[in-house]
TrEMBL record:
Belongs to the short-chain dehydrogenases/reductases (SDR) family. It holds the Pfam family adh_short_C2. The lineage of its organism: Bacteria, Bacillati, Actinomycetota, Actinomycetes, Geodermatophilales. This is NADP-dependent 3-hydroxy acid dehydrogenase YdfG. GO terms for molecular function: oxidoreductase activity, acting on the CH-OH group of donors, NAD or NADP as acceptor.
Amino acid sequence: MDLQLDGKRVLVTGAGRGIGKAVALRLAEEGARVALLARSRDDLEAVAASLPGESLVVPADTTDDAAVRAAVTAVVEAWGGVDVLVNAAARPASSAPVPSLADLEDDALRVEVETKVLGYLRTARAVAPHMTAQGWGRIVNVSGLNARATGNLVGTVRNVAVAAMTANLAEELGPAGVNVTVVHPGRTVTERTPPDVAAAPADTRIGRLVTAAEVADVVAFLCSPRSVAITGDAVAVGGGTPGTVAY
């Protein structure tokens, strides 16, 4: 299937590593021009060197609205607009023990909201006028399956908030031709995953962990004109959660 992404102007946040990096590579392979955003210029330069086709490095911290707007302006000045935004700039889920309510500090949630929820909102807010002016666009927010589970209050709240934001943006922007979706990865194999963990059986319906490249395959479809029938909804990309029914 031709995803019709050839020549599309894409901005990927969190592109220096993990799922964001994998998404950038997958979209570049589809012929898109990919602008890479993260805090580390060195990481972005390394990713850019590995991409086929045209790319652009725009370092920025998504907790800084002025920096986000400047990065989007740089992309628009270079390429004349933005067709696709993939938001993946977020702190990875921690493997540390989850604190009890008595031990949970305000900043644990405040930092996550500032980085993931407001960070995604800032980039969407900056690109939306360009997409609506041209009558077409795609925004894909990378959230997480903690949105559908208890046991980690901070993880659940931040990911549910991203899903709620996605639905609201989809309703506002949809009439102008802009689709907004959210994907929920589970534990995902990235370049930082130890080989023994990546190869071990996992509690998923496919019996193993999903890779960042496999998440990127789904994201690439959602970024394409082919995905017009999907907007405002959440797509799980964690290999299937046993014992649950999502409806």
